[in-house]
Amino acid sequence: MAHDEIIDRYSALARAADAVAELRHGETVLDLGSGGGIDVLLSARRVGPSGTVFGLDASPAMVELAQRNAEQAGASNVRFLHGTIEAIPLPGHTVDVVISNCVINLSDDKAAVPAEAFRVLRPGGRFGVSDVVTARALDEQARQRAGQRIGCAAGSLTVQEYRDLLAAAGFVRIAVTLTADHGDGVHSAIVHAVKPAIGPGLEIRPMRESDAAEVLAVYQAGLDTGQASFETTAPSWEGFSASRLPHLRYVAVDAGSGEVLGWVAATAVSSRPVYAGVVEHSIYVHPGCQAHGIGRALLSAFVAAAEDAGVWTIQSGVFPENAASLSLHQALGFRVVGTRERVGRHHGVWRDVLLIERRSAVSGT
Ligand SMILES: C[S@@+](CC[C@H](N)C(=O)[O-])C[C@H]1O[C@@H](n2cnc3c(N)ncnc32)[C@H](O)[C@@H]1O
Question: Which sequence ranges are marked TM in the entry (predicted)?
Answer without folding.
Answer: none
